[in-house]
Write a structure and sequence with these properties.
By secondary structure, this protein is an alpha+beta fold. It has two domains: about 40 residues, Winged helix-like DNA-binding domain superfamily/Winged helix DNA-binding domain (Arc Repressor Mutant, subunit A, Orthogonal Bundle); about 80 residues, Alpha-Beta Plaits (2-Layer Sandwich). It contains five helices and four strands. Helix 2 crosses helix 3.
Length: about 150
């Protein structure tokens, strides 16, 4: 990857809906070379997809929590079963496996506290291999997910 690839990535992280013509103009390339570079970045797996950023509260998701999960066992089967179960819960927006204790951190959204309690009691605590769940409520989102820092 060179400086031009990073410029392309920077622009796409800021606005993934740019047309190839607009993107090429912003980075100082003609359309064809810009298109080739974007396709190469996609093929190499650097660009993994495009999506809209949506305001959760506009869709009624007013409640957010971070849920820390400690597993009973850490063997391959237990981890695989748990990770498959997490992937099946649409209210879990992101999940990270951690070193140490706890084992996982989940970012969860629901419409309100009663909906979170129901999700917690019926789905999260029932996932395979869970020993303990600890939750902390999100008071305010200071910074929504943003793009990666890239060399300029």
């Amino acid at each position: 990857m060179d400086r031009m690839d990073y410029r392309i990535l920077t622009e796409l992280q800021q606005d993934g809906r740019l047309s190839l013509t607009e993107l090429a103009e912003r980075v100082g390339l003609s359309t064809s070379p810009c298109h080739r570079r974007v396709r190469a970045l996609e093929k190499a797996g650097v660009i993994t997809g495009y999506r809209a950023q949506i305001d959760a509260s506009q869709l009624g998701y007013e409640f957010a929590a971070i849920v820390f999960v400690t597993m009973r066992e850490g063997d391959h089967q237990a981890v695989t079963r748990f990770e498959q179960a997490v992937a099946d819960i649409p209210h879990v927006l992101s999940a990270q496996r951690l070193f140490g204790d706890p084992d996982y951190m989940l970012h969860v959204v629901t419409p309100d506290l009663p909906a979170f309690q129901k999700l917690y009691d019926e789905r999260l605590s029932a996932m395979p291999g869970v020993h303990r769940l600890t939750s902390t409520l999100v008071m305010k989102t200071l910074m929504p997910e943003r793009g990666l820092p890239l060399p300029s």
